[in-house]
Amino acid sequence: ANVRAHVIGNVAFDETISVSAMPEAGASILGREETRDLGGKGANQAVVMGRTGLPTTLVSAVGEDFRAQTIRNQLALEPVETKLISLAGRSSDFSIIFTTPDGENAIVTTTDSAGSLAPEEAIAALKGAKAGDLVVLQGNLSEVTTLGLLQEARRRKLVTAFNPSPLRPYFAAFWPLIDIVFLNRGEAENLTGSSNGAATEWLLRSGVRHVVLTLGGDGALLARQNEPIAAIPAVPAKAIDTTGAGDTFMAVALASAALRGVELDNRAISHAAAASALTVSRRGTRSAFPTSEEMRAILAH
Ligand code: ATP
Q1: Which residues of 176-194 are buried (b: 16+ CB within 10 A; e: fewer)?
Q2: Mean of per-residue pLDDT scores for the chain
């Protein structure tokens, strides 16, 4: 089938600082840098897809600063073709994550670059895409850029996959242009008013072809037009840090089906569950994702 995935989304540099307690307004406190890692939902999904062996391109905007070079260096270590669009006068996106000894997180993320990627630039990056290729999108780009990409994908007969995260008020116009949606409980509740099979029905009625609702440790639902809904269990894991679990799940499910030349099926969802069980059992973002070698073992089942 020779499908290529084109992931268009954000890349961010995550810096995790451990503190004894969350800082309060006006306070100056000491912290210890715990991890620095590549993050951002677009980059996460592209890295995981690349590690499955599916030919993958990441299209992302970065600013003109020292973080852009670090982002470039880290992505160069991954089996992903990277098209970084450098935006003059902008700063690269980053997250500052505070963690406390009791495992609490507070995260501040900037979206100057991802939010400034213009529709023309994003669409131009799809130039080499061919019919049947995957276009993978999340909620970090602007409304016009996301809508422009979805319309272009439809015109070119590309398969569109969307993860409505972070939630934005403007997703309603997207559904008829989306082939496959992956969402979690909170997103389902917010967008459809329920977080079970009724949410998948709602999205199918809105024009989406395949819906995958992830339910944390309770597994996932796969709903397709004119087929009975399937419930696929999670793979038991000792969850230490769930950052990137949803991104791992989406990327592996899409890649598993694309590598076999089939539509999303139960086996793809089981592969995704096995891969995200590894991600939740490790700390960090990029460093927690299954390696290429682990991915080969998962996809062989
Ligand atoms: P995150 O925001 O933490 O990246 P998410 O909220 O988008 O994740 P979830 O539904 O929480 O998505 O998790 C995605 C998938 O990860 C689940 O369907 C499951 O396969 C796996 N997973 C998550 N939590 C656990 C867990 N505690 N044990 C085993 N698997 C898990």
Answers
A1: ebbbbbbbbbebbeebbee
A2: 95
Neighbours of 238 (CB within 10 A): 7
Tell me, what's the ipTM? 0.98
Nearest residue (by CA) to ligand 1, atom 13, is: 216
Annotated binding residues for K(+), written as ranges, equal 241, 243, 279, 282, 284
Question: What's the token pair of residue 281?
Answer: 């059992």
User: What does the pLDDT read at residue 166?
Assistant: 92
DSSP string computed for 156-205: TTPEEEEE--S--TT-GGGGGG-SEEEEEHHHHHHHHS-SSHHHHHHHHH
Q: Whole-angstrom Cα distance, residue 37 to residue 222?
A: 31
The reported pTM is 0.95
Reported as a single tens digit per residue, the pLDDT across 145-178 is 999 999 999 999 999 999 999 999 999 999 999 9
Distance spanning both ends of the chain, measured CA to CA: 20
The closest of 8, 82, 48, 83 to 255, measured between CA atoms, is: 48
Nearest CA to ligand 1 atom 26: 217
Going by the annotation, the residues of the binding site for substrate are: 12-14, 40-44, 247
Ligand 1 close to Cβ of residue 289 (< 6 A): no
Who contacts 107 (Cβ-Cβ below 8 Å, separation ≥6)?
A: 95, 96, 97, 98
C-alpha span between 71 and 89 (Å, rounded): 17
Percent of the chain with pLDDT over 90: 89
Number of CB atoms found within 10 A of residue 143's CB: 15
Question: For ligand 1, is residue 231 a contact (CB within 6 Å)?
Answer: no
State the distance from the centre of ligand 1 to the C-alpha of 248, rounded, in angstroms. Answer: 9
Cβ(220) – ligand 1 distance below 6 Å: yes
